[in-house]
Amino acid sequence: MDIHKLHYPGKVTIESDSHYSLAIGFFDGLHIGHQTVIKEAKRKAEELGIRSAVMTFDPHPSHLFGDGEDKVGYITQYPEKIRLLRSMGIDALFIVTFDWALASLSPKQFVDIFLKELHVLHVTAGFDYTFGSKGAGTMEQMDALSDGEFGTTVIKKVTDNEEKISSTRIRQLLSRGDVGETTSLLGRPFRTVGVVVDGEKRGRLLGFPTANVLPESGTVLPANGVYAVRFTVDEKTYEGVCNVGVKPTFHDPSDMQAVVEVHVLNFAGDLYGKEAFVDWIGHIRDEQKFGSIDLLVEQIEKDKISAEEILATHR
After folding, report:
1. By C-alpha distance, which of 57, 62, 48, 56 is closest to 20?
2. Residue 267, CA distances (Å) to 166, 215, 308 in order
3. pLDDT, tens digit, 9 for 90 and up, residues 38-93
4. What is the distance between the alpha carbons of residues 162 and 197, in angstroms, rounded to a whole number?
């Protein structure tokens, strides 16, 4: 898959004579709704005998327009998004810098600069996709602004239990720790990507050594608690039990940032400095403070059994 980074008013074209069937949107999470848009663009590419492509934006618009807590965390960071798009067989990815210059373009300017100049022959997007200054452009307007140079397809609302599948809904589910429902909307387990870093090594002293995973900056995490997970490192996948939170038995919660700690089952070895993938399979319990170390160890034993039971049903 070819990857092109575009920035207005600098680099907005590429050196290629290829024509594209383009799926356009931010696509955070690449959930089932997004996949429907992208698969249709790919199908149209095959029909027209041209290349399939995805156009997305970086950073998320909330990082430009939002303030403080209004800036959303990413469900899927770009390295993982690229991996998923590549697995879908997409030929090209256009990553457009989302800044004030881009946000100030009129809908017509956006179409002329970023679609016509890239030799796009077909555009596919969701029914609620907007573009141009203040989101004034709609897919109905895009069809008119094409001047007959490209066709358009609008994907209707994709639902689950009669509710729209959206990135906002997935973030809400994660904030409640509902990784099971999140899996159904993504079409795969929610994944956290990070690097194994040195931790307090307290788990080792308790008899449950853990891998401390430092997520990529800006990544959204599930609610604090204990989960059954799959842990992948060096292209090998293991089962594990994960605590995400502030470890209130040992720390003042107000002084801590959430930490992702995975006790990897049936594993022995050095993981420090390695890239790790944590796939969240099932919620076991909320994080809690224990009155003694013995009570904590007893609960961890129970959590380990619960994780094994959950993972056994998801093989």
Report:
1. 48
2. 37, 21, 14
3. 999 999 999 999 999 999 999 887 777 766 556 788 999 999 999 999 999 999 99
4. 42
pLDDT tens string 27-36: 999 999 999 9
In Å, how far are 43, 166, 233, 265 from 28, measured between CA atoms?
21, 9, 24, 31
* Distance linking the first and last C-alpha atoms of the chain: 30
Residue 223: CA count within 13 A, CB half-sphere: 19
In the structure encoding, which two tokens stand for residue 143, read together? 């069809």
Residue-wise DSSP of 64-98? HH--GGGSPPBSS-HHHHHHHHHHTT-SEEEEEE-
| This model's pTM is above 0.85 | yes
Residue 220 CA to chain centroid, in angstroms? Answer: 9
Report angle CA 129, 130, 134 to the nearest 5 degrees.
150
CA torsion 166→82→74→68, rounded to 10°? -120
Handedness of CA 283, 286, 292, 293 (dihedral sign): positive
| pLDDT score of 250 more than 50 | no
CA distances from 23 to 52, 131, 188 (A): 8, 13, 21
User: Residue 221 in contact with residue 229, Cβ under 8 Å?
Assistant: no
Rounded-to-integer distance, Cα 53 and Cα 114, Å: 13
Cβ atoms of residues 90 and 4 within 8 Å:
no
| Confidence band, pLDDT 50/70/90 cuts, at residue 290 | confident
Which whole-number Å values give the CA distances from 43 to 8, 20, 46, 48, 118, in the listed order? 29, 12, 5, 9, 19
What was the pLDDT predicted at 15? 82
**Using an 8 Å Cβ cutoff, are 77 and 219 in contact?**
yes
- Band of pLDDT at residue 134, cut at 50, 70 and 90: confident
Alpha helices by DSSP H, listed for 106-264, are 107-111, 139-145, 167-175, 179-186, 202-206
- For the chain, which domains are there? 2-164 (3.40.50.620), 178-312 (2.40.30.30)
